[in-house]
Design goal:
The protein has helices spanning about 5-10, 20-45, 50-75, 85-105, 110-115, 120-130, 140-155, 165-185, 190-210, 225-250, 250-260, 260-275, 280-304. The chain has 13 helices and no strands. The chain is about 75% helix and about 0% strand. With about 300 residues, the chain is mainly α.
């Protein structure tokens, strides 16, 4: 679910002259709570809405929020059409990944989905080498190897049948990584308001097209509507909290905090859904974390 431009993370990995890790940790608590709330709300809304309908209503609420904030901030004039092809490609990738993620959380333990989602930065690293010409260093190769080993520990090929939740969660991570590549290209010239406007507007169109393909579009009931609003708000606040935390401390401090999402969501799964604590998932996530951390430290050294 994390959709930060990769250069934002790398730039934040350089030493900050006025780093405030304590405040950064508080902002990360907000991000962790937001991501967890989105997962819980997604499961609740999925009882009534399919993933396409859920994305449609989420995007509608998100578009209203973006337009309102943009109007108050006076930034709507920053919305341009000069790189429309990149916006289209980015939002098709993100729409696909988000739908896969929402499906995965309804059929698999939350901890497993979150663990596989953490492979997204490693996929971004690989795709950046292929499509952006970024150099594949030994540190990146080591990070990729550790991440791959973590995925094998989680999926345990041969020991357990491959579930649809595993496949869709892994595919969602690849789509989020693809989104990050297009985001990196867009942030070279486009503002956050422009990117967020097309994010919500285009995904609303995509969601409606997919929802109406069978001629039926479900309206959220009064009981489900608050969950849809929570998904939209939590998605925006999660990225805002994470971005703010990165502005206050190096990524080598902030990003490891993000992995607290895994034990947090594992506890949520146990308390609310009677999901077992899967040690293979936690062990695999530790390897994925190690791979991401190696990459962050290497990026920090390159910027110092």
């Amino acid at each position: 679910m994390t959709d930060l431009p990769r250069e934002t993370v790398i730039a934040a990995s350089a030493p900050l002259p006025d780093a405030r890790p304590g405040l950064a940790a508080l902002w990360m608590v907000g991000a962790i709570l937001s991501f967890s709330a989105m997962a819980v709300a997604g499961r609740a809304a999925a009882l009534e809405l399919d993933t396409f309908e859920l994305m449609s209503w989420r995007s509608a609420v998100g578009l209203l929020i973006v337009l309102t904030i943009g109007a108050f901030a006076g930034t709507l004039g920053q919305v341009t059409r000069r790189r429309m092809h990149l916006h289209v490609a980015r939002n098709i990738a993100h729409f696909t990944g988000q739908n896969l993620w929402f499906y995965a959380i309804t059929v698999s333990p939350l901890a497993l989905v979150f663990a596989l989602e953490f492979t997204s930065p490693l996929w971004t690293m690989l795709l950046a080498a292929i499509f952006l010409g970024e150099r594949m260093t030994r540190a990146k190769a080591l990070a990729g190897g550790l991440g791959f080993a973590g995925v094998l520990m989680i999926v345990q090929p041969g020991a357990a049948p491959l579930s649809s939740g595993m496949v869709t969660a892994a595919m969602a991570a690849v789509m989020f990584a693809t989104t990050a590549i297009f985001t990196k290209k867009l942030t070279a010239t486009e503002t956050i308001t422009c990117i967020m406007f097309y994010l919500t507007a285009m995904q609303l169109v995509l969601g409606l097209a997919c929802s109406l393909i069978d001629g039926d579009m479900a309206m959220p009931s009064l009981a489900t509507a608050p969950w849809v609003v929570l998904i939209a708000v939590a998605g925006l606040t999660a990225h805002f909290c994470l971005t703010t935390a990165l502005s206050m401390a190096p990524a080598s401090i902030v990003m490891p905090m993000d992995f607290a999402r895994l034990p947090a969501i594992a506890v949520v799964g146990m308390l609310f859904y009677d999901e077992p604590l899967l040690w293979g998932v936690l062990g695999g996530a530790a390897l994925i974390f190690a791979g991401n951390y190696v990459n962050i430290i290497a990026a920090r050294r390159r910027t110092t």
